[in-house]
Design goal:
alpha/beta; Rossmann fold; eight-stranded mixed beta sheet; 13 helices; about 35% helix; globular
């Protein structure tokens, strides 16, 4: 039986969340949380699959994106506010707990939900971005950098240099992305390249070259990578980001101090007890978790951790959806078999 993907809107006094849902309302929620610069449709290959397995699959446009509220201040994009959005969504679904799945910036969100609301979690799955108990910031990630790839004299901020560019040149960063949104989408959403292993990521040189693509320059013209995006997928991303601009999306990067303070308030819950799955992207050289020490804090702070390596780049759920779905389903079956629908 095929389940339709439905469009929904949740309005509260503080925020409006647009979200996609698929599957029976009685199913255990699996809430898929996207990252930068994505949309609920980033999980288009997952929603029907997990609905077919008996779950209620849900994917919101996160704040600042798509049809959800685009707030006007940088501080509106603190992880604390985004976690509150997700708890409101879970309440609206009428469920006490969910399985939370996060990718890119969605991963720090679900890790924070695990810290602050462990009673609302059946389990946590993260793609590409591992658990850093103190929150994802330049300051927390930098001590774990691979200095054989990023010598400190040449790359003081390692691959996290681009986060510093947002802090120091926010308007310029957003303007470059907005200058040619179709080119930006085609340049970003590309499959992983095994040849990049052991080489500095482009994100390590953003400040030195005066921007992602050079001083004031838009993204270069590139063909669409059909292995990641169809023409229809591309058009949906482009339309949404042309409508909202990049202010909200980019503001997620400039709340490091507030995000660290939020994590510190949950220090008694840093050791996660619920089932956790982490999927490493073999060809993601920004969130490089195989050769570096970036995954070590996660291994030290998760009591029930499962790991798998997917042969993809950063856009794992779109580049290798069958493998991602298989790993998620296997983990759910082994760790949380009682959540599967008996219908």
């Amino acid at each position: 039986m095929r389940h339709p993907v439905l469009e929904n809107t949740l309005k509260t006094a503080r925020h409006t969340s647009f979200y996609l849902s698929c599957g029976a309302q009685s199913g255990t929620p699996v809430i898929f949380v996207h990252g930068w610069p994505e949309l609920a449709i980033s999980w288009r290959h997952q929603l029907e699959v997990f609905a077919g397995l008996g779950f209620r699959a849900v994917a919101p446009d996160m704040r600042g994106y798509g049809r959800s509220t685009v707030h006007s201040r940088h501080e509106d994009y603190r992880v604390e506010e985004i976690v509150a959005d997700m708890i409101e969504l879970l309440d609206a679904l009428g469920a006490e707990k969910a399985v939370w799945v996060g990718h890119d910036w969605g991963a720090p969100v679900v890790w924070s939900i695990a810290q602050h609301h462990p009673d609302r979690c059946h389990g946590i799955a993260a793609l590409c971005v591992p658990y850093l108990p103190e929150g994802l910031t330049v300051e927390t990630a930098l001590p774990l950098a691979d200095r054989t790839v990023y010598p400190e004299d040449r790359f003081p901020a390692a691959q996290w240099d681009y986060m510093m560019f947002y802090r120091e040149n926010f308007a310029a960063a957003s303007a470059a992305f907005e200058a040619d949104v179709p080119a930006m989408i085609r340049a970003l959403f590309r499959a992983g390249d095994p040849a990049g292993r052991g080489q500095p990521a482009i994100t390590a040189q953003v400040r030195a070259q005066g921007g992602w693509f050079g001083p004031g320059l838009p993204a270069p013209a590139m063909p669409r990578d059909e292995s990641v995006l169809s023409e229809i997928d591309e058009s949906r991303y482009v339309a949404a980001l042309q409508a909202t601009g990049f202010f909200g999306a980019d503001s997620w990067y400039v709340n490091g101090d507030a995000n660290r303070a939020f994590a510190m308030r949950a220090k008694q819950n840093w050791q996660l007890q619920m089932p956790v799955l982490f999927l490493h992207a073999a060809h993601d050289y920004v969130c490089e978790t195989i050769d570096s020490r970036l995954a070590e804090p996660m291994r030290a702070h998760c009591a029930n951790l499962s790991e798998a390596v997917v042969g993809s780049g950063h856009w794992m759920a779109q580049e290798k959806p069958d493998r991602v779905n298989a790993e998620l389903a296997r983990w759910l079956a082994i760790q949380m078999s009682g959540l599967w629908s008996r219908d």
